[in-house]
Every structure is written in structure tokens, then in C-alpha cells.
Amino acid sequence: MWDQLIRLFRELPETSKLFILLVLIAWIIGYTVWDILSRRRMRDLKRDLKRTKAQLQELQQERDQLQERLLALDRVDSHVWTKPDQCRNNRFVPREERRARFIALANLKGGVGKTTLTLNLGVSLAERGKKVLLVDLDFQGTLSNLALPRELVNDYRGKGWTTDALLQANGQAAVDSLHFAVQDAPNCRAMIARERLELVEFERQSQFFVNPDHEARFLLQKAFHVPEILQQFDYVLFDCPPR
Question: How far apart are CA 159 and CA 162, in angstroms?
Fold first, then answer.
């Protein structure tokens, strides 16, 4: 058979022989390239498979860690959520028995105008003859900087006459000594905040999660439900942080 093919090939014209040789060369080159690409593709697939297995193992480890954390949270005493009425101190005064109205201006998103609204609302109420207390609970202290002269704010912050003192003192701080007159608004006073407020808030919450004896809830209620506030002011406005 091969002899016949060779004989037929020799009898072909030179152009036909050249064409057949070119076709064979092209086929060999194409097959070689395909084989190289296939091997490279197989190598890439093996590498991707190995990487995927490693990522899967990492995800499984993270899942196990999350499960351990969830179990740890389940083991935490339910004091965080249950029986909140027992945590309320006897200092709570119902609305009908006090002069002051408490209003919290809050939003999960920052930059929506909470501070501006708090200040303008407080000054407007003060201009109507109401006695107003502005409480800055945002560690950025924007309300403090707007309501009071900058040099006084820096001085008060350095002395610790700020809202984080209420959390550090377990709500027992003399809140009446921590508010100051707002400039150009005689009936309006303000409590200032500083960056340490965020740290103190986190510390109190962490202590409470670990030990229920370190009560971290209702601290502001303890601090503000006192005669010095309830009978002195008509409105207490809280500028809350964005969360």
C-alpha cells in the first residue's frame, strides 16, 4: 500500500507535490500548536483548581471561626436583651412629671444635616423664649464647634468637661456643670463632645458584654433625669452620631 502511494506521489506533477507537502507541513504545525496550547490550558486548569481548593479551605476555616463566634455569643448571658425594665434606674421621671422634653436627632447616614438641624432648632426655640440644652453626642464635635467659640471648646475639651464624662461616671456626673452658654443665644446652652467619646462608648459596651455588672445602658437617662435638667430646660436636643 505504501509502495503504491509512493509511486503515485512520484507520478504527480511538481506543483501537486509541492501543494501536498505544504498541506502536511501546515497540518504538523497546527497539530503541534494545538498540542502546546492544550498542555498549557491543562496546566492552567490544574493551577486554578489548586487555587480554588485553597480558597475553599480558607472559606471553610472562616466558616468554622464564625460558628465558634456564634457559639460564644450564644454562651453570653442574655442580660444584654432580657428584662430591660430591671436595668432602668429609679431616677426615670415620666413625661407628665417633668418640664423638659427630650428630642434625639438621629440618622444612620452621616452628612444629612442632623447637626445643622439640631443647632437651628435649638436656637429657634430659644428665640421663642424656651430654655434649650443642646447635647453633642457625636465624637466629631461639629455641633460643639458651631455653638461655642473655638478657643473655649478646646479649653473645655482639654479639661474633660465633655459628654464622654457622663459615660465614664456611669451616669453619675454632675451634668449641670457640663453645659455652657451658646453664643448669641442667651436661652440656649450646649454640652460639647470630643473624639474620646467614641473610645469611651466602645469601652463601656465591651465591659457590659463581658460583665453585666458594668451596666452600659440608660447612662444618659441616669445623667439627664435629674432636677437640674428636668426643671431648668424646656427642651433637650441630642445630636446623635451617624449610626
Answer: 8
Are 166 and 217 contained in the same domain? yes
- Of 189, 193, 197, nearest to 119 by C-alpha is 189
In this structure, is residue 154 part of a structural domain?
yes
| CB neighbourhood size of 160 (10 A) | 12
Q: Are residues 103 and 45 part of one domain?
A: no
Q: Is there a single domain that holds both residue 107 and residue 54? A: no
pLDDT score of 121: 94
Distances (CA, A) of 206 to 11, 17, 64, 112: 96, 88, 23, 29
Domain range spanning residue 1?
1-65
Q: Which residues contact 196 (CB under 8 A, 6 or more apart)?
A: 139, 162, 164
Whether the model clears a pTM of 0.85, i.e. scores above it, the answer is no
Question: Residues 193-233: pLDDT tens digits?
Answer: 888 888 887 887 777 777 766 666 777 888 888 888 888 89
The verdict on residue 86 lying in a domain is no
Cell of 64: 468554622
